[in-house]
Known about the structure:
The protein is an alpha/beta fold. Helix content is 36%, strand content 25%. It has 10 helices and 14 strands. The protein has helices spanning 29-40, 55-65, 74-81, 92-105, 119-132, 141-144, 146-156, 184-204, 303-316, 328-342, and strands at 20-25, 45-51, 69-71, 85-88, 109-112, 136-139, 163-171, 207-217, 221-229, 234-240, 247-254, 259-263, 267-271, 286-289. The strands form 2 sheets. An 8-stranded mixed sheet has the order 8-9-10-7-11-12-13-14, with helices on one face. Strands 3-2-1-4-5-6 form a 6-stranded parallel sheet, sandwiched between helices. The protein binds nicotinamide-adenine-dinucleotide. Nicotinamide-adenine-dinucleotide binds at residues 25-31, 51-54, 57, 89-91, 94, 97, 112-113, 139, 141, 191. The site of nicotinamide-adenine-dinucleotide has 22 residues, from helix 1 and helix 4.
Amino acid sequence: VVASLKAIPVPSSSREIIPARVVIVGAGEQALTNLIPSLQQMPEAQIVAVCDADLDRASSLAAHLAVENYATSMEALLDSVNATAIIAACPPQAHEDIIRAAARCRVPVFVEKPPASSLDVMRMLTRESERAGLISGVGMNFRHAQPYAIVKELLKKPEYGQPISVSVRFLASKPRQAMWGLSFLRTFLLAQVIHPLDLMLDIGGKIDSFQLVRIIQDGGILLDAQLRYASGAAGSLLCGTCAPRFAIRVEIVTDRDITISLSGLSELVVTGSPSSPVPGDARAWSQHWRPSPMDAGFQRTGYFPELAAFLHSARQGTAFHPELSDLLPTYELLDELERRALR
Ligand SMILES: NC(=O)c1ccc[n+]([C@@H]2O[C@H](COP(=O)([O-])OP(=O)(O)OC[C@H]3O[C@@H](n4cnc5c(N)ncnc54)[C@H](O)[C@@H]3O)[C@@H](O)[C@H]2O)c1
């Protein structure tokens, strides 16, 4: 993958932009396939250093990006590169150390999900980063995905009403084994369930209660939960590792008889919209959104907009969302799911 990363020329119209100086921490698959290619499309970003616990990985990525600075210690790099922001994609325990080091050095930090291995650590990190005035960001790319951002915009309009039902299906073929020195169940929760749960909270707000319908563990896990939002809305969450390939589906019904359904981040259908072509017969009409066939993907999957927004926050000294504290309700529910699943 390293060999396929290319320097992308900066468009002439944006030459006057002084780019944010970015330190990449973790030269693994996520950085190479999604984060760095997204940053390379941004004139406002310049990768100035690479850090990885594995020196060979750090030096090989630095060479391919034509970056002089690389090391196995992030703090040593931060002393010398005048960084605007740190972008990290490592195991959760490493994220914990990276966030603490960023707080000490007062450099805004973005970490991929999961930001930490447990709720207790998340609470500590949130307190420490707030005390240090640290700008933090967590990589929940689905929140920034182009069609999902459209859904959120629609839900802000009073004429679309409030959700009375939110259903998220998030099925994948992995993880199929324990990672990060955690149990398989904890790995599954932190690697996968964190995404749909975060979306459910982002769409419908506080969740009051839930019932875990079943969990099957046979080389994989399937988790099926019925939720009740504080607003009174019903929620349904299905996620698991038993699918042949990744599939995501979000369906929302509102109290204005509108349904919004998003499949695979590539098809958004709104039925009963107040702006249907024949207003008197709105219920009979559906409106479709589909990405351009030329769409390279990072807008649609959310990686480009989330990193662009984070770098904007880092430069302006303003908060980015989701920041560490925004993930606390998600971690509380992940813990509760784990407790129920182990009963
Ligand atoms: N947003 C998403 O949907 C998404 C998708 C894939 C992965 N991720 C997340 O990205 C992270 C990385 O995943 P990956 O697949 O690239 O893993 P990976 O194992 O391929 O890469 C991780 C890299 O981090 C390095 N590393 C470990 N500890 C370190 C430390 N203390 N300091 C510096 N480098 C260190 C490793 O040497 C390795 O090169 C994980 O947290 C994963 O959950 C998020």
